[in-house]
Amino acid sequence: MANEALTNIALLYSMAAISGSGGGDTPTPRGSVSVTVGTVYTVGPNEQAKVINIGNEQNVVLDFYIPQGVAGQGSQWYISDAIPGTLVEGAVDGDLILYTTGEVYKVVDGKAVDQGLTIGGTNNSPYDYAVKAGFKGSETKFQELWLASLNSGFTNTILDGGKSDS
Questions:
Q1: Apex 72 CA angle, 71 and 74, nearest 5
Q2: Half-sphere exposure of 8 (CA within 13 A, CB side)
């Protein structure tokens, strides 16, 4: 739109300069007319775009005021069974589709993984926690990868690959 305005203004001034009259009482420039771009400003997102001639009719200098875009939303990754792979380039059946609130998509290849981890409690009572990241199959499309412990005393032993019976 700003390019259109610039072209239209330049054309009008050029035509008036060639003809030497604009009709009526409106003074028009005579001779050559120059049109240059002055400064381009970024204004608030709710302000109107505008172009102002800060020069004169013979030497047009245009300042452009362009609104900035509205701030986008913060993103967080989400997992989707609802978005079919056919809507995302490069996805095939069985792939996991990660997406953000900004509708940025990432395809994760579907490779089934199923591992188990047993953690002993304070009285040696067993607690089983499964660490799963299965992408094939509708009910195991994706589960969060997590590790749980009964108290912080076991955490380092578990993460180091050791075993705790206390």
A1: 120
A2: 6
111: three-class secondary structure by DSSP: coil
Place of tokens 């305005």: 5
**Pick from 90, 162, 58, 59: nearest CA to 119:** 162
- The per-residue pLDDT for range 15-71, each reduced to its tens digit, is 555 555 445 566 665 778 899 999 999 998 888 899 999 999 889 999 999 988 766
Would you state the structure tokens that stand for residue 42, as one six-digit string? 């970024």
Quick one: CA torsion of 71, 72, 76, 82, rounded to 10 degrees? Answer: 160
Pairing outcome for strands 96-99 and 105-108? antiparallel
Q: Tell me the DSSP string of 5-61.
A: HHHHHHHHHHHHHHHS--STT-----S--EEEEEEEEEE-TTSPPEEEE-S-SSEEE
